[in-house]
Amino acid sequence: NQYGQPAQGQMYSGQPQMGYQQPMGGMNSYQYRPRNISKKEFFKDYADKKNKSNITSAAVMLYICFAINFFASFIASGRTEVILDCILLIAMGLCIHILYSRIAAVVTLVYGIINVIVYYSVMGSVGGILIPIAGVCACLGTFGLEKEYKEYIDYVQDNMVSSAGQ
Fold this sequence. Notes:
Elements: E1 20-21, E2 31-32, H1 39-45, H2 49-75, H3 82-99, H4 102-123, H5 130-164
Antiparallel strand pairs: 1-2
C-alpha cells in the first residue's frame, strides 16, 4: 500500500520469525518472547551469583572432606570402613554440583549433623563441622535456585499466555 505497510496477512520483510512478537506500539519495535530452558541452562546463564556461589562452595567443601577422609583415614591407616563415608561425600558433592539436587543438599545437612554428634560422643571433641556447613550452603543454594527457576518458568508461561492473547 501507499504507506509502506504490507497487506493484511503478509509479513514485514525484516520481521524475525521465531521467538519474537510484534508489540502493539509500532511496526519496527520487537520484544523478545522468553522460552522455556532447562535448569542447567538457567543456572549457567541467569542464576543469581549468590546461589551459584553457595552450590559451588558446598561441593568444594564436600570434595575437601572426601580428600581428607580418603587420605587420612583410608590411605594412611588402612581403615576400609571409611570408604563408605568417602563414597557418600563424593556422591553428595557431585549431585549438588552437577544436578543441583535439593535432596542431596538435605541429605548432606542431616548426615553432617549426625556425623558431628557421633564424632563428639565418640571422641569427646567437635569434629567434622565442615560437612554440616556444606549442607547449609547446599540447601541455601539449591532451594534458592529452584525458587528462582520456578519464578522464571512462571514468567515465561505468563508471557506466552499474554502474547497468545494479542
